[in-house]
């Protein structure tokens, strides 16, 4: 995949920011949903600010990282993609383990994908941490817009206008030019050949409300609503509690013989493991 | 599923998952299937519900939430410096895992538990060697550590590949007790047949033990939180990330061969999925394997830590001669600190090679060390090995997991199968630019 030079973190920028976060938390976020609803595209959008037409199933990504700055806390998302293991119902318990947030994705043009999403929500409630924060996400909004020309999706998320105040704006605004290019490309023909009933926003939102989920509609392709989903997830997490728990577990790990296998096998890379100086993340905070 | 694969892997045990991961990373198109609806095959870690189902038992009282349990069906620890750990690190599978060190390694002698010395200082103080023997043991260990293949001055007239351990023990005038300590607590041999074999393997085992000990101290072992079943899951994810297709809970009804007798495909219900080769565990190829031994394993749930153990986890070795057997008995002790049992519960898993027609009686000396046992699950499993090496028909069958306490023999099998499948030696090294591929 091509790398967008403008997504490289700008350390000086972040350090000079007046509201550098006081604390940071690591959050494991898992993606779920039927194959081909755009899970990987959503990650690619939020992490690299890219979109690939006819994207092949993800190859080679352990997990991707994205930091979001909210309420003076730097939320570091480790985003786990299913790696195709959802297709034949073969996701391992490891996938759900210790996940604090989940995005259950469906395709707004296909009613059946919402039904699958509901099944995934059930699976999460059965397998995952009971306090997990789940967001139901209707993706491929651009396809719906094109056929119905309905503009309502933006009005629903009041966050959209304000969330950039959390310290994301320079970055994301700066990249707008990049997206024009991909959004002007012809529509994905695969999805359009499926003459399935689209999902109404009202129906999905009502279900989300009933099941106690966050809700949003997105287009990974035209970059609508993606950042908002992550911001809302970050805000819905019990951040202060997580910070104190992390402190406690860090102390107990040291006392109880937790070991960093990586640093013992390749000590030269201790920095890599400890600091995550991954130049490909969109880093918006100085933590 | 209609397409043709480079390899089909049957069973999601550790051996199969590591091979699947390695092949996928190399760009091979892999289909990985399992009859069961969970990962891990014979070496899965089961939650309490799965465990009770397997053993047809009802829930014991006051034992905690079923989902907090991850009981290893093959109890083992990882040596901190063994090759499997290196593969975990170099493939970045460690990103999915958290490890803890095991607090101690104990050895049973004349009714008591002794700590296996973890440092030179402890070695000098250990009651396992008599006062005059400590110097001889020290000389022996110095000889091992200073050995260089290309420097005859370090050989002292010994040939590692020709002389036997018995010869070396005689040269250093080491008593039976110290021999037991070296052979069973350090080399982790299950029986005494090593004494009449060339020194080389014992030499390698001592070096592995010492270097593993040097990593974190206390004991040479580490353990992944949530159980060993995390290992196959981690490698399965690696394989999936590199394009491997995973199907659990699918029928596997046998394999089909071409007219030339080579592997053609796997029958699953009405379908035959084709591939160049197949790799699978013995449970998928009973007609192609033979049983060479049986292992008895007892998983014991306790409400108290084991008496005499230093720390909340450890290994206890009961050397064969101490209890009049041919094979050692091992106990692996874990607790809720490893996320394998619910809070307040402890797990002791006993295993040994079956020698009589009453295997449950054979493990009594171990059970006697445990105190009150809340619930006990006993398995007796075959150790099967393939009859053929697979190179003539492209059907590669792995070995069952043995009774050893670490993964050295598992990894030997992985390396061996890898070589037979690809024609190349498995080189354990860091892959370049892993982060760039993320």
From TrEMBL, chain A:
**Biased composition annotated in UniProt, kind: Basic and acidic residues:** 187-204
Tell me which UniProt keywords the record has, alphabetically.
Nucleotide-binding
Q: What PROSITE patterns does UniProt report for this protein, alphabetically?
A: ARF (PS51417), RAB (PS51419), RAS (PS51421), RHO (PS51420)
Q: Where is this region: Disordered?
A: 1-21, 146-204, 267-287
User: One Pfam family from the UniProt entry?
Assistant: Ras
- Biased composition range(s): Low complexity: 8-21
Gene Ontology MF terms in the entry: GTP binding; GTPase activity
Polar residues bias: start-end ranges: 154-165
NCBIfam families from the UniProt entry? small_GTP
Name of the protein described by the UniProt record: Vacuolar protein sorting-associated protein 21
Gene that this sequence comes from: VPS21
TrEMBL record, chain B:
InterPro entries linked to this entry = FAD/NAD-bd_sf, GDP_dissociation_inhibitor, RabGDI
Coiled-coil positions: none
User: What Pfam families does the database record attribute to this sequence?
Assistant: GDI (PF00996)
Q: Which GO terms describe its cellular component?
A: cytoplasm
Q: A single Gene Ontology molecular function, please?
A: Rab GDP-dissociation inhibitor activity
GO biological process, any: small GTPase-mediated signal transduction
Q: Which PANTHER family match?
A: RAB GDP DISSOCIATION INHIBITOR, RAB GDP-DISSOCIATION INHIBITOR
Q: Which family does it belong to?
A: Belongs to the Rab GDI family.
Q: What is this protein called?
A: Rab GDP dissociation inhibitor
Q: What does UniProt list as this organism's lineage? A: Eukaryota, Fungi, Fungi incertae sedis, Zoopagomycota, Kickxellomycotina
């Amino acid at each position: 995949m091509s790398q967008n030079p403008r997504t490289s973190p700008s350390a000086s920028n972040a350090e000079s920011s007046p509201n550098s976060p006081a604390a940071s938390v690591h959050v494991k976020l898992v993606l779920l949903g039927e194959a081909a609803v755009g899970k990987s595209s959503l990650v690619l959008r939020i992490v690299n600010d890219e979109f690939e037409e006819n994207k092949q199933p993800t190859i080679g990504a352990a997990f991707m990282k994205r930091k979001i700055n909210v309420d003076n806390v730097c939320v570091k998302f480790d985003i786990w993609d299913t790696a195709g293991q959802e297709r034949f119902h073969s996701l391992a318990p490891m996938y759900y383990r210790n996940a604090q947030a989940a995005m259950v994705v469906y395709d707004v043009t296909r009613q059946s994908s919402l039904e699958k999403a509901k099944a995934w929500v059930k699976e999460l409630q059965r397998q995952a941490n009971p306090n997990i924060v789940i967001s139901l996400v209707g993706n491929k909004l651009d396809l719906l817009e094109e056929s119905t020309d309905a503009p309502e999706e933006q009005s629903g998320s009041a966050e959209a206008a304000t969330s950039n105040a959390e310290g994301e704006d320079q970055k994301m605004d700066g990249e707008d030019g990049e997206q024009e290019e991909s959004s002007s490309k012809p529509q994905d023909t695969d999805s359009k050949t499926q003459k399935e009933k689209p999902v109404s926003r009202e129906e999905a939102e009502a279900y989300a409300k009933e099941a106690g989920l966050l809700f949003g509609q997105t287009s990974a392709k035209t970059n609508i609503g993606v950042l908002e989903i992550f911001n809302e997830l970050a805000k819905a997490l019990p951040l202060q509690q997580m910070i104190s728990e992390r402190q406690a577990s860090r102390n107990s790990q040291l006392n109880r013989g937790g070991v960093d296998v990586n640093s013992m096998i390749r000590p030269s890379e201790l920095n890599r493991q400890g600091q995550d100086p991954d130049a490909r993340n969109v880093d918006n905070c100085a933590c | 599923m209609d397409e043709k694969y480079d390899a089909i892997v049957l069973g999601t045990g550790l051996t199969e998952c590591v091979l699947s991961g390695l092949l996928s990373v190399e760009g091979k198109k892999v289909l990985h299937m399992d009859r069961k609806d969970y990962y891990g095959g014979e070496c899965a870690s089961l939650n309490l519900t799965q465990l009770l189902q397997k053993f047809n038992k009802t829930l014991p009282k006051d034992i905690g939430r079923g989902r907090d349990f991850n009981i290893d069906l093959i109890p083992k620890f990882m040596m901190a410096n063994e090759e499997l750990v290196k593969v975990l690190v170099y493939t970045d599978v460690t990103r999915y895992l958290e490890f803890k060190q095991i607090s101690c390694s104990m050895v049973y002698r004349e009714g008591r538990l002794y700590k296996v010395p973890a440092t030179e200082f402890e070695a000098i103080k250990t009651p396992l060697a008599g006062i005059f023997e400590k110097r001889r043991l020290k000389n022996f260990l110095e000889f091992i550590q200073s050995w260089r293949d290309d420097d005859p001055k370090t050989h002292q007239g010994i040939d590692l590949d020709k002389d036997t351990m018995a010869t070396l023990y005689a040269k250093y005038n080491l008593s039976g007790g110290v021999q037991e300590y070296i052979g069973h607590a350090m080399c982790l041999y299950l029986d005494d047949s090593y004494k009449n074999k060339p020194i080389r393997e014992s030499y390698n085992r001592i070096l592995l033990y010492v270097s593993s000990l040097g990593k974190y101290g206390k004991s040479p072992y580490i353990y992944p939180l949530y159980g060993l079943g995390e290992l196959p899951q981690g490698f399965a994810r690696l394989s999936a990330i590199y394009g491997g297709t995973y199907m659990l809970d699918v029928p596997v009804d046998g394999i089909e061969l071409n007219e030339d007798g080579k592997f053609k495909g796997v029958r699953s219900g009405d379908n035959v999925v084709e591939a160049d080769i197949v790799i699978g565990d013995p449970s998928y190829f009973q007609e192609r394997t033979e049983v060479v031994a049986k292992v008895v394993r007892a998983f014991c749930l306790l409400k108290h830590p084991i008496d005499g153990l230093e720390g909340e986890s450890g290994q206890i070795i009961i050397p064969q001669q101490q209890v009049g057997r041919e094979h050692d008995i091992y106990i692996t002790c874990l607790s809720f600190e490893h996320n394998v049992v619910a809070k307040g519960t402890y797990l002791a898993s006993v295993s040994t090679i079956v020698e009589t027609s009453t295997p449950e009686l054979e493990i009594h000396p171990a059970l006697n060390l445990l105190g009150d046992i809340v619930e006990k699950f006993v398995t007796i499993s075959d150790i099967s090995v393939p009859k053929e090496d697979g190179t003539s028909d492209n059907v590669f069958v792995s070995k069952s997991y043995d009774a050893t306490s670490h993964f050295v023999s598992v990894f030997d099998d992985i390396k061996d199968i890898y070589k037979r499948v690809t024609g190349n030696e498995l080189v354990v090294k860091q892959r370049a630019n892993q982060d760039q591929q993320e």
